[in-house]
Specification:
This protein has helices at about 25-45, 50-55, 60-75, 75-85, 90-105, 115-140, 145-155, 155-190, 190-195, 205-220, 225-245, 265-280, 280-295, 300-325, 330-350, 355-385, 390-420, 420-455, 470-515, 520-540. The chain is mainly alpha-helical. It comes from Tricholaema leucomelas (pied barbet).
Amino acid sequence: MGRRDPEEGQLPAPVKPPDGGWGWIVLFGCFVITGFSYAFPKAVSVYFKELMKDFHVGYSDTAWISSIMLAMLYGTGPVCSIMVNQFGCRPVMLIGGLLASAGMILASFTTNIIELYLTAGVLTGLGMALNFQPSLIMLGAYFDKRRPLANGLAAAGSPVFLSALSPLGQVLMEKFGWRGGFLIMGGLLLNCCTCGAVMRPLDMGMKRKMEKTQDKYEAKEMLPIGGKSEERISTSDGNKKAKKAKKKPKKGKKLLDFSIFSNRGFIIYTISKFILVLGLFVPPILLVNYAKDTGVPDTEAAFLLSIIGFIDIFARPACGMVAGLKWVRPHVSYLFSFAMLFNGMTDICSARASNYTGLVIFCVFFGISYGMVGALQFEVLMAIVGSQKFSSAIGLVLLIEAFAVLIGPPSAGRLVDALKNYEVIFYLAGSEVVLSALFLAMATYCCLNRGKKKEPPPEKNPSAGGGSDTEEAESDVQEAEEHSNDNHQLAHSTDNAMAAASEEANHVAEEQSREGGGCPEGDGEVLARDACNTDQTVERDRF
């Protein structure tokens, strides 16, 4: 996908998403990649206490390992987009899996915290970034009608892997130490290479179908169908070649398409997503410490995150199914706005929770709303820019989100240290999420929907490229098959014409025999032979 044709230097024609088949294998690979990308930086935190003892550093120093991983995941989006557009998704994912595994394996041999930043932070974070973005691109290529459900199922990998990797990391650290745990975790990350290997580009299936169509066409050309039909076929071929010559040649795909900034929907989505990320991750980061300050025991405080993860597992696929409904999908941006509004109001309403029961209720509603946001965020982006420009769009969006990630949680931590009050932080984070929801809904309604109503309906032009990806793919496949179908129709019409001409000759011969009555013997013999030959010709043609 996104690779250039070595012979013509052009991009392959868009292919109709199969919405199943091998796409389910791609979906499973995306599920695994999403789980590693989002859960791994959080699961590494179980090793922080041992790292603090061995390297004689503080908690903030070890916390930079997870922060660097997330910064690489978000900040290297444009670099990943360029690599995908240049080399394709599968090679980039294979390289990313090797880098992620190598980073953790090398981290097991480090002797200071700086080396950990470079190996487990930079190298592993870059490897996961090179896996995460291409997996979403391939998911959008394989699914169209079922894409909301596919995005929801893939997003469920994050809570599933978080609930599995954290206990696994604790067990590995107790049995093998943090170095042995890092080494084994590096081996687990090699599964990213397996997921990258199953990301089969769709243009391979397109080439096979074109080869079958070409074989049918060559077989038709070998049949003896008469001189007149050959002239008609040559004429039709000449017309088709003339039409193709008039068409402008396709331009090669840009390494990073900045033209998406001319899309008002993309601008609105980017601004809304930046405001959202400022407050979205703050409550789960501060929740455990907030619970401990209210007098909740440590074990019960840690269990609050497990509640969020468990609810999140079911919320994401369920939201994907709802977003895929026919009457909901055209308005998926409003559903995304509702999810953000729900999440923000949950933060605001739960800011005064002072007991464990209130915090559990907060975790239930936060898990539902957080899962809805996670399931819809990339589906909305795909719906806005389309699958052809999604590789560039997601890279630029992740880069912009990286600044918000570096601003939001650290600023909240400083406010907690200064004010010693978590209630203000929950109000502030919830207000930011609500603001992003209101901005997305109002901007979508005022700037996009009203603009569409004012514009006159565009005239149908078959040469225009404003259709959906599915319609473009269907038209390309139909155009490939029209050539062979036209020849088949010409051959069939030529056979009918020859049979009609033979019947007409036979009819004329019968009329002449009736009018002549008494023909000479020689002429009668010749006429009989001619009539016999004509009858045989007619029967052979009919056969």
